[in-house]
Amino acid sequence: MTGRKAKEIIVSPAVSESSLDDFLSKLIHIKILNIDPRLAPKGKFKTLFESKDADMVICKTVSEIRNAKSADKIVGYSKKVLSNVDLDEVVSASILGAEFVIVEADDWKIIPLENIISRLHKSGTKIYTTAKSAAEVRTMFNILEMGVDGVILSTRIPRKLKYHGSIWKIEHLSSSQQKSWLSGMWEPGKECVSILHRY
């Protein structure tokens, strides 16, 4: 085990409510969902959502962070980063006690994700971003040496997620890599990231 932080995949189901139970039953080794907590099976997943009822509460304003913190919740901040002003807001949210930040951008060439990672990497605030494919997950986990702490993967095909942690893929990894995969997390730079990229 290196000193690098483990990575998390958080699933955002892109399916209708009528298909949700079937979708969730096919997820393997995923522990956190980006979903309304009223829709999540009790006790099976943690939820990350813009709701005071979520396990991890997403806030859109600084005042929301203060209110949620006073309710003794795990609190984060979500921001679409379009300029350096937005980047400063993300850093301010971290200073105010956001335990995680979710950063999105239409074009990471304008505001490089590296800037956010370098400004927050010693803060203790987890950095999450979004992805719609395994290739995007791989890219986000490998930006700089540290990469992001987690990726919110929007998907409607649960079989893709099996490749992130299924037994028949784990068999091709070393025992230490298997442990990382079984927890729904892995360390950057290991072979499992390249396996993820293949599918």
Total domains: 1
Determine the strand fraction and express it as a percent band: 15-25%
Average pLDDT, all residues:
77
What distance separates the N and C termini? 25 Å
Looking at CATH, the homologous superfamily is Aldolase class I
Uncertain runs are: 162-175, 177-199
Q: Order the strands across the largest sheet as they lie in space.
A: 1-2-3-4-5-6-7-8
Computed over alpha carbons, the radius of gyration is 17 Å
Structural class designation? alpha/beta
CATH architecture: Alpha-Beta Barrel
Q: What's the overall geometry? A: globular
The CATH topology name reads TIM Barrel
Q: In the CATH hierarchy, what is the class? A: Alpha Beta
Largest sheet report = 8 strands, parallel, barrel
Q: How many DSSP E strands?
A: 9
Helix content: 25-40%
Number of helices: 9
Write the element-wise H/E pattern from the N-terminal end onward: EHEEEHEHEHEHEHHHEH
